[in-house]
Structures are given as structure tokens and as C-alpha cells.
Amino acid sequence: MLRINCPFCGLRDHHEFTYGGDATVERPALSERSMEAWYQYVFVRTNPAGWMQEYWQHTGGCRAWLVVERNTRTHEIGATHLARDRITEVDRG
Amino acid sequence: MAEQFMRLPHGGRVDRDNPRRFRFDGDEFQGLAGDTLASALLANGVHLTGRSFKLHRPRGIVSAGVEEPNALLTLRSHSRTEPNIPATMAELCDGLQAKSQNRWPRLAFDALAINDLASRFLPAGFYYKTFMGPTRGAWMYYEPWIRRAAGLGKPTHTADPDRYEREHAFCDVLVVGCGAAGLAAALAAARAGRRVFVLEQHAVAGGQLLSEPADSNAEQWRRACLDELTAQPNVTLLLRTTAFGLYDGGVVGAVERVSDHLPVPPADTPRQRTWNLHAERIVLATGATERPLLFGNNDRPGIMLAEAARRYLNHFAVLPGRRIVVQTNNDSAYAAAAELAAAGANVHVADTRANLDDTVIQPAAAAGATIAPASRIDSAQGYLRVEGVTLHGPDGRHKRRCDLVCVAGGWSPNVHLAAQRGERPTYRCDLGAFVPAGLPDDIATAGAVAGTLATADAVAEGWRVGGEAAGTDAGEAIAAPTTAAAPGYLAANNTDVGEPRPQQGKVFVDWQNDVSVKDVELAWREGYRSVEHLKRYTTLGMGTDQGRTSNINALKLMASLRGQDIPTTGTTTFRPPFTPVALGALAGRRAGPHFRAQRCTPMYDLHCERDAAFVTAGAWLRPWYYRTHGHDVDTASIHEMRAVRENVGMVDASTLGKIDVQGPDAAAFLDRVYVNGWRKLPVGRCRYGAMLRDDGFVLDDGTTSRLGENHYFMTTTTGEAAVVMSWLEYLLETAWPELRVHVTSVTDQWAAIAVAGPNSKRVLEAALSGVDLDDGELPPMGVRDDVCGDGLPVRLLRVSFSGERAYEVYTPAGYGDALWRRIEAAGADFGITAYGLEALGGLRIEKGHPIASEIDGRTTLEDIGLGAMDRGHKRFVGDVLRHRPALAAADRRRLVGLKPIDPRQPLRAGGLVFPNSARVEGHGIGHITSVTWSVELQTHVALALVEGGREREGDIVDAVSPVHDERLQVEIVSPVFIDPEGSRLHA
Predict the structure, then answer these.
(1) Helix H or strand E encompassing A81
(2) Fewer beta carbons within 10 Å, N or C terminal of chain A?
């Protein structure tokens, strides 16, 4: 019964969205050959109690991939960003 | 006996002009409009309504609400049969049929009542003790008998003829509960102009106010409040609506019993409606429930809660008994005592307290009730109905005859909703009750649930909380009504629940689950001391009533056994639903064919006209086979396969996922997502491609065409289309935002027909006038967009799934119907045959093409024979982890073909492969993924994943289906059964 504030579509029911995993893990570059790096990326996750960043796709709406802050203790939804914007910011940083 | 002989001549809120006939266990009775089944039965002097769950003891009506543990009936008949409905919540409609439960052959004489005499063999934890360890096998023998003996009502096995709905709504303030506090809160929010929803689970709003006489000041106040609320356009009052769950984000789930009070739902009206209410602020005014007291045989019919007796008297104008003993440990019972006495009953009050407040007891005494301080019931007499009690007071023991015992053990706030999100209620010693605690800012409580039981205080609290929820200061509260009810919370730390003397008969704590004081003591002796263990070991607090009348008494017992206080003992966890919810109400319209979306291709109607049998493929309905080709799937599909191999066939391929990929970096993007390369693919050609997941397993495969320098047309499998689309979007938006590529799903924009077989070219030449199909123009793996002479646009791909010369013809979806008719008409001269999914599957198995059965998320490129696609000269998704050592192990299961030694022996998809003559043990050395009859080879064939793969070609192994008790010898062969060199593509 969560509602997610999609930057394009506004506050929408979470049934319109599809969960896409932990958004804090950093994807290795395609040129990365280290099996350990890919193993860490694909299989190893922390399980934080509290705020975490998650990927969600607005599959039933604009189809944008979002980074959504969610509190795993309270199910509270915090800030939401377009995944594309966030990566651009990281690149700039 | 006269009908409704316990109905009073005046009073109540029932409609005396509208009699209602109903049947209970076959006997006909009369009640009134406005009655519940319980009040109508009581009006006819019927208390006995059922037999208990385990011991089959006779039981009667205990309450007047959702807390009812005993009077569970099966309502209606045939396909509308519904078991376990509390008689206290079932509104009386004309012709209603009700049956008692868990009795045989009849309610007054129940053969299994012998369980009661044998109850020492059925103690707490009986199942666990009897059927664990060496005696476990006995469970198999006794289970049917135990299940028959212990039970509630039985559901019907026929389909429910009624309709259910789901509805979403949004509001500023949601008020749950429409008693004095809820009414005040709703009014305060409504006057502030907020959008307000008010939920009331009963048919009449008013809560505890309904226990006040119908000519009282409280009744005038109730009516005035309701009149004002219902006149407001910003207020929605939902009656017969139970809030069953409080969820995250201010969401309340509620079920509205729209038509349950009618014999049959009217046309176009659902039987029930589930509401998903999204509220900015929530006010819980859920009230409190009275508790019973513990004494011997305290479960006899005719023993009911004092507040319930008062409700039956004042709301339904029913006198539930003429000679009444009231047992109380607090002040709240005296209003009932006074009013029952005033209505003509002989009333004797036994109060456990020695010192009584004159102002509290005076009205009862004035009405003629006798009052005995420091007096308690030891036990009750009677079997099918209480006949008397043994009272124990300062002057010793004596018996007193009676036909009704009212018990008043204090009040428990209905904290369920408030506690469902995990906030445990806290115990307030000054009230002797648990109250909600730790609620977030957007949820507030008002009235009895918050421990505010006095009506005037509850109104003031409701007004204040409602104003706060509306975001305004509501100012001075509306005037509160005067009520006869006295606050019924116990004095500080009064944990007096009675002094049960087991030798005086069984003392029940939980009536619905037949849990007695002895069972609680046994659980304690055996070490089950936490309340959660107590609940699971004894089943106390389970069932349809969820221990509403029993939990606190059990807690108090356990606390005293452990020598602890109640807060230390704690409560069990509160979970939704608050009261049982029918599965149909939760499903709403999502039943039968509406269970989930069904997708139909643009040619769906054509397939129906041609008598196709359909099969579900993913979300799609696809033709499985055409009944005109044979009476069953085998006959028809063999006919259809033969047509493709020998002549020409056509199949609807519109379900393929289609993704348009455009942009300057499109080729680079495809190079990254596919194993094989795309930069060098010329415009006008297509290529088979496979893609992996990050973990190195195969994700999907399909044909992708290059339509222009920066324009590709990707197809995916039917089942994975949505997954692949999201995956491509994910990669572009999270991993490689620098790539200038746009992907668009065009699955629904294109219809597709595959035309396959030696005569396919001739048919298409006849069908698509003006389109050049010359092999030079359209060689194998060629692609062209073209337009027929009359303007029909087509996209042609020369690709083959069957191994025969074949074409995929795409056209904008709106032309799909026209294209099918055109090919069909042109093909008639050649004897073209439409084929379905079964034949399509058979044809691809003969060619060894893997589909979802083989690409099952656990297979690698090498496993399905595609290892050569990775030439090692570029990087792509999954190319690192696909080289994990274990994935290259020699015993990986890899794709092979299987042929039975006896060609007529069918193989079983899902069957296991074992070495020849080996013991069938464990998982074998492989499993069969796809099977078909090969029209061409005249033998059954199969694809399988077998350890060692094609290294084993020529080996004889056993195909085993343990569930069919089958074992047959098969030879391991190449998965490509026919035309391995691919010469037919050019035929």
C-alpha cells in the first residue's frame, strides 16, 4: 500500500511500479574482467534496517526507471529521482 | 408457543410493521425488520444455537456483535451457502435459512457430545502429544474422524453466483467506528469542510448508544448527529462496512456487505465490496468489548454478556430472560440490571466487590433488582439452557433458579486496528486495560478504544481529535448526550476474573476453541508460558472471533500463574483481518477469465470462426490446434505438422515480443546486450541472437533485423517480451545513459503471420501482389519493408522456425485480419493449413530449437548448444560470470535429442533420465524438456538436458516417469532430428 512519487506522473500507487533491486550497488564497467567484481555486484547485498535506495520502474506508467528512497522499517517512501539523473550527477561528481 | 413471545410490546428500533419469516434448522420462525438473526431467535426464546468446536457442548448467543464466539451459523443454501456467520451480525431478511453447525444428528441431541465426557483425553496440545513420535502413523488413521468431529461449518463446493467489487477511494479524514466518539470526530472534521469517510460495521450507526433506550436523550443526540452527517456532501457514511486492516501509507482495507441483508443481491449490485481507502488522517473510534467471567459451566446457553442483554432489550425490544442473575465485577452492569428489572424481569445482581457505590446501584435497586455484594457464581446448572446458579456470598452458598445469566467482567478496548502495524498496545493499570500506543502522527484514537469510556468524555475526545485530523481547532465540543451506562473499566489493577472451582464443572476461557482454565494451567505446567506459545498450544484466541472475549481473561490467568503482572505477560500479535473476510470480496472481479488480463491477437476472431482450441501462452490466448483438423490435439497437430513439412501452413505469430531500437548507438547497444555481434549486419538482413543475464545464464533469444543504419527491429520470445523490454530500459537508464538509443515496445503495433512449407513462396506470391519475393531479393535471413499493389503494408522476414522454407509477414495490427484472409484465400489453391501452438512446437522440436522449456533460466549458452555464438572478440552482458568454473563442469546437463527404441512409445515432458537399468533414485542424469510425435521420422522424439550432453550420443538410457510408473529405453541422439544441413530453407 505504498505510493511512489514519480517525477513524471506524480504520486501513484505502487501497483503501477515494478521493484528493480538495490540501487546502491555500483555496476562494474562492461570492460571489467574481474569475476570477483561481477560476483559482488550480482550476488552480494546488504540488508539495511532503515533507509535504503531502490530501483523501481514505473512499468504501468511512463516506464521510467527511478531511484526511490524507502525505509525498510516503516515502509515510508522518501525522495524519488529519475535513475538517469542520478547517474549524471554521480558522473559530474 | 406464541410467536416472538419474548418480544416486548413497545420500544426498540425494530420495524413492527414489517414481519420477517425465517427458518432455523428447518423450523419456521418470525422476526421483524431490523432484527439480527440472534435477536429474532431470542425473541422466540431460542438461546441454543450451536455445538462447540471440540467438545460438542451446547452453546448459545453470548454477545450482540462481532465478538460472538458461539452462535456461528450456516446461512442460505445451495450455491449461496455461507458457513460460520455470527448470528449477531446476520441481518434478518425474509425467507432467510439458517442452520446450526457441528452437530449430528441434530442440535438438541448430538452424538458427539460424548467428547465432553471424554474430554480428559482431549486436553490442550492433544494433537501434538498423540500424533508425534512413534504414534505418528496413527494420525493417518484417525485424521478423518478427528476432522469430522472438530469443526465449524462446511462451505459449498459450487461456484458463488454473486458478484464482488473492489473500489479505491481517497479522503482527508477517515473515521473508523460510528459510536459517540466516532460521530463527534466525523462531525468536527465535516464541519471543517474536509472529505470525510465514516465506517460502521453494523447496519445502524451509534455503537454503544444503541444500548440506550430508543426514547432516550442519547437516541435524540444520535439521530441529530447522523442527520447532520448524512446531509453533508463531503461526508460518506458506509454502513455494514468493517475496516479489517490498517496498512502502510494511511490505507485502510474495509469490506462493505452491500447485499448480505437481502435474500439475493439485486441485479447490477455486488454482494460485497472491498474498499481500499487512502486517508490523509485516520481516527480510530473502534470502541470496547465486554469480557465474560469465569465460573463452572460458564458456557451454558442463556449465559450472555450484560451489555448484549441490554442491547437486545433496548435496541431490539427483546427480553432475553425473565429470571436473571447478573454477575459483575464493575459498575457497567447496573444499567442493564436496572432496565431489565424495569422491563419486568426478576433481577438479582451478584457483585464480586464488597463495597458498592450507592449512586451506581440505586437505579437498579429502585427498579426492583436485588443486589448482593461480595457474591459470586460458583457454577451454573442446566444443559441445553441455564436453569440456575450456585451463588457464594458472605452468608455461604445457595442455589438460585434463573433462565438468564448476565456476565460483566469489564471492558477491553478494541485495539486491533491500532496494533496491526506492529505497535504493541500498552497496559494502563488505572483502567485494567490495554490501550493503543506508539501510533504515528496521522492516526489518532478517540473514545472507548483510547480508554475513555464515559460518554461525555468520549464525545469531547472525538470532537478534539476529529478537529485535529481536519487541521483546525474545532473549538468547544458539541454537547454530549446523557446516558444510563456507567464506565465499566475496572478499578486499578483489579484482575478479578472470577474464582473458578474446576470441581464445579468446566470453566471456559475461550468458548469458540473450547479452551478451559485447566487447559491454560496445563500449558503453563508444560512450559508454554509466553502468550504466543499459550495461543498456539491451546488454540486460545484463534478462530473466527480471534479471542475477543477470551484473550484478556487468559492473560490474567497466565499472569497470576506466572506470578507476574499483566504488562510483563504481554499480548499476542494483532494481524489483519479484524473479522473474517470472504475470499470473493478480496478477489473482486478478478475471478474466472478476469483473473488476469488476457491478451488476444488481432486475428483472434478469425481463429474463433475457424474453431480453434485455445491455450494460454504467457498472457496470450493462442490457437492450440484447430478442431477442424482432428478430434483431439494429437490428431489435429499431426495433420497440421504434416501440412507444413509437405505443403504449406500458416500460423499466427503476433504474440512475439517486438522492440524497435533506434539511435546512432543502436548497433553498439545491441553488441552489448547480445552475445553475438551486430555492427557488421547489413541493412536488409536479420540475425538470430541470444542474450544473457548478468549472472551468465541465457535470458532470451530471437531474431533481430537491421532496417536502416541506425534502426533495428528486435523480436523476443512471447513469454519474455516484457522482461526483455524492462531489461533494455534498465540498462539504458541506469548503466549506459551515454548511449544514444531509444527502445520502444511495438508488440501490439504489429500483427505477424508465419507462412512455412515448401509451397510458402508460391502462396505469398499469390497473396501479396506487387511484392517481389525473388530469392535474390529476399534470401534466407533477408528483411524488407514493402507495400502490396493495393496499399497493404508488409514487413517480410525470411526466417524459419520449422526448418522449412518460411516467411514471417508483419503488418500493422489493424491489417492483421485482412492479411490473414488474403494469405488464406491465396493459399486455398495450394491447400494451405492453419496450424496452432502444438504443431509449431512439434516442428521446432524436430529441428532442436530451444524455447522456454530449455531456456529455463538455469541453462548456459553451452548447455543449449549455442556456445559458438560467443566468438570472444567483444564484451557483452554476462560474459564474465558465464565463465564461472562450475558452469563448465563436465557433468552439466546439456541439450540432446532422445528417441525411444520402440518408436510408438510416447515420452513424457518432465520425465527423468537414468542410466540404462539403473535404480531409480534421486534426480537421475537428466530430464526431458519437450516431447512430440515426429511426423517425418514416424517416431516419438524428445529434447532433454542430460549430463555430458552430446558426448553421450549413441548411448542407451532409460526415460523414467515415476508418477506414471513408466520406464522405457531411449537412445541419445542429436537434438536436430531432421535436415541438419538446413537445405530445406532453400527448397
Answers:
(1) strand A77-82
(2) C
